[in-house]
Each structure stands twice: as structure tokens, then as C-alpha cells.
Amino acid sequence: MTSRNRHWMWADAVDLLDRMQRLQQQNYAPVRAASGPPAWEPPADMIETAHEVLVIVALPGVDAEKAEAFIEDGVLIVRGQRILPPELRTARIHRLELPQGRFERRLPLPGGQYHGVRRAAVNGCLLVTLSKVDGGCF
After folding, report:
1. 38 Cβ neighbours under 8 A, 6+ residues apart
2. Average pLDDT for 90-94
3. Distance (Å, rounded) from C-alpha 122 to C-alpha 37?
4. What are the two backbone dihedrals, phi and then psi, of residue 19, each rounded to the nearest 5 degrees?
């Protein structure tokens, strides 16, 4: 084995380790969904104001109307699918880092009662707005 081959293999190994670490840090961890086959878990932010709780879920390429968002036992559940667009299914893919398939994220909510689970697409994210009953408070 030549010195050049060893350096090439080492560079590929380091590149692969770097890619794996980035994917892990993005929090796209596979999880066993409560209702079906394994899913991936998108990252999310939760922000509380005096009158509502806002949840921002990173879901680029997912139609907000096709994603489910509901409350069950004090937990917000967001689930759906990201499917490769039909026009890309026969394309040569050089890089595919965004996870495909079923996703599900379960987020325990701050104490209180909520109504009006609303969904909207904002800058490649799913924005879920939960209104607090009686205006709520912190």
C-alpha cells in the first residue's frame, strides 16, 4: 500500500466520522413511535408567552397541513412523514442528509390547559401555536 492510498483512506474515514457527528448533533435520532414503525425525531424549540406556547419544529420540505399536531396527556405530539418528491426518485443523489420517512416528536408541555392547536409553515419549520385557556400566565 502506498503512502498516497493510506492518506486517501484516512481522509475518507475522518470525513465519515465528521458527518456522523454532525448528524447526531442535529438531533435526528431514531425513536420507536408509540403508534407504528420506528421514526426519526426532529429538533424543536418551545417558547412560552403570557397567552400561548409556541413550538417550532425543524421540518423543511414537510407540508404543515399534512403534519399532525395534538395534545395527549399533557404532551404535544407532532408527527407525519417527509417523503422524497416523485421527481427526485429517479435522480442520482449525491448527498441526502435530511431524514426521510416517518417522524414523531413528543414534547411535555408546561403545566396548564390549552386549546386551539394551530399549525403554520414558517421558514422551513412547522410552527405550532397553543393558546392558553383563560389567557394563562407564566
Report:
1. 30, 31, 32, 102
2. 87
3. 28
4. -65, -40
| Rounded Cα distance, 114 and 49, in Å | 13
Predicted structure pTM score: 0.71
C-alpha R_g of the chain: 19
Q: 44-77, pLDDT tens digit by residue?
A: 999 999 999 999 999 998 999 999 999 999 999 9
Distances (CA, A) of 134 to 61, 74, 76: 35, 17, 19
Q: What is the pLDDT of residue 32?
A: 57
For CA atoms 62, 82, 100, 72, give the dihedral sign.
Answer: positive
Q: Nearest CA to 102 among 56, 45, 36, 22? A: 36
Distances from the Cα of 114 to the Cαs of 33, 54, 66, in angstroms?
24, 12, 22
